[in-house]
Every structure is written in structure tokens, then in C-alpha cells.
Amino acid sequence: MSEPEASREPDPVLAAESTPTGLMPSGDERRDRMLAVIRQQAFVRVKELSDRFGISEVTVRNDLAALADRGRIYRIRGGAIPRGALGQERPFEESLTSFALEKLAIGRAAAELISDGDSVIIDVGTTAVAAANALADRTELSDVVVFTNGLKTALELERAVPRVTVVVLGGTLRPLQHSLVDPLATHILERITVGTLLLGCNGVHPTGGVTNINLPEAAVKRRMLDIAGRRIVLADGSKIGRIELGLMCQVEEIDMVITGESASPPVVDALREHCEVLVAK
């Protein structure tokens, strides 16, 4: 015998679509239904919510602000994600063993894009360090200048001096990632332009953009993006499809994402609508 209809728990998103004609839900009801949509889709844009609920974008923003004030969602540029969707920053050493082979492959692929005489920024993080290691292995290269805000990145390149000139950005040390951030990290960045940026991140999403967990680091990374001619994001498969707190740029603003074989194929396909994606092997 089938389960009685009345005993079935209604789907909250379907409920959001089923208000009887002529009956407008209260503000609290609408926000509850909006929250259900955000939780189901993980990231929703303001315009999508406006179209879905038949309300203005101003009203959507007010509703999202109310949900954020209650601690139910995070506001990010252009939309919202559910609270609890964000990750926690892991120490550098803890991240070394995660997706280690993918990071090595990504690093090699990134290093192959550098030529004699290039100027490069190599970011912080374990994947960026893998790129620095692979670049140091390219003994045929010469006259390369590398800027970095990562102490681990700089030390990995030390064996390539003098073929590679290594410039460490100033700033305040963050021990978790061995990175240098404000107030001094942007001092040099305000005075240079570079050919290529190899950018680390915590999330790459087709609509949510390129994001980072730590806000001070995200601010330095945004400045790096501003001064680079070619912008390449390094992200192992676990970061593809993720959205974190600090937005650095939209996917349309970068030239290439280099990722690994564990990346979700549908998300990779969606990213390819906005930029080049290289799956390193």
C-alpha cells in the first residue's frame, strides 16, 4: 500500500513554487523558501531569485541581507551561498599530502608555460609550490624573474638562482600558509607589471568565481590579478565547483584554469564556456 499523501514531507523548493494564485507569501515565508533554494543549489544569483519569486532585485537583496543577519547564508558577489558551505583553512603542511600527485602534475603543466625572459608571480599554497619546484627543474630556462608572497615558494626556487631571480614581497607573516600579507605585501605590486600569474585558490566555480578562504590573502591575490598580463589559476580537483568566502575574480577574468583528473567533468565543461581549462596528467 502506498504511503498516505498527507504523511509525505513536502519538498521545500517545490513548496516555493506552489503558492496558490493570488496569495502572496509573507516576507518570512518567502525568505524561508528562498533559503531552501539556496541550500539545494549551493549558489544562487540575485537575478535568478528575482525571476523565480517574481520580486524585484532590491527585495531579493533585502531578503538575503535578512538571512545573512540571521546567520543562515553568506552573501557573496552577485548572490548567496548557504551557511556551512564554506571550508576551513588548513595548514600548509597538512595540505601537502592531499591530492599530492595531481598537484605535481598541475605544477609541471604550469611551469611548461614559462619561457626565457618571462616575469612571473607565483602565489602561496601547496599547488603553487609544486609549480615553483617544476620551474626550478627546468634548467634550460634563463633570465626569469619570479615575484612571490610565499616563503615556501621562494625557498623552492632558491636552487634555481641565478637563472631565476626571486623577489619576495614584503608584508606580515601568516604562519598557517607561510604567506606575506598586508599592510606591506602590495607595496611592490603597486609598482610592477608581470607577464604571467600562477594563482592559488580554494575554489573555482563557473558562476561563483575564483575564491579564497582567507580574506587578507584574497586582497593580495586581487592585486596580483590587476597587474598580470596572463592569469592562470592552479586548482586541484577538490577545488573545482567550490565557492569560498573571499571573491578574487569572476572566471571570465582569467585566461586558464589548470586542474587535475579528479575534477568534476560537468563543472569543467561549464568552466570551459568562460576560459581555457587544462586537465593536467
Topology (SSEs and partners):
Layout lengths: L11 H6 L9 H15 L2 E2 H8 L3 H13 L3 E4 L2 E4 L9 H4 L4 H12 L7 E4 L3 H12 L6 E5 L2 H7 L6 E5 L3 E3 L4 E3 L4 H4 L4 E7 L2 E3 L3 E4 L2 H13 E7 L11 E4 L6 E4 L5 H7 L4 E4 L2
Helix pairs in contact: 2-4, 3-4, 6-7, 7-8
Brief synopsis:
The chain is an alpha/beta fold and 281 residues long.
Shape: elongated
**Which H/E pattern describes the elements?**
HHEHHEEHHEHEHEEEHEEEHEEEHE
Distance between the termini: 53 Å
Largest sheet: 7 strands, parallel
Low-confidence stretches: 1-22
Task: State the helical fraction.
Answer: 25-40%
Share of residues in strands: 15-25%
Strand order of the largest sheet: 6-5-4-9-12-14-15
Structural class: alpha/beta
* Number of discrete helical segments: 11
Number of strands: 15
Work out the radius of gyration. Answer: 22 Å
Mean pLDDT: 85
Description:
- The chain has 281 residues and is α/β, with parallel strands linked by helices.
- Helices cover 36% and strands 22% of the residues.
- The chain contains 11 helices and 15 strands.
- It has helices spanning 12-17, 27-41, 46-53, 57-69, 92-95, 100-111, 126-137, 151-157, 186-189, 215-227, 265-271, and strands at residues 44-45, 73-76, 79-82, 119-122, 144-148, 164-168, 172-174, 179-181, 194-200, 203-205, 209-212, 228-234, 246-249, 256-259, 276-279.
- The strands form 4 sheets. Strands 6-5-4-9-12-14-15 form a 7-stranded parallel sheet, sandwiched between helices.
- The longest helix has 15 residues, at 27-41.
- It is elongated.
- The termini are far apart.
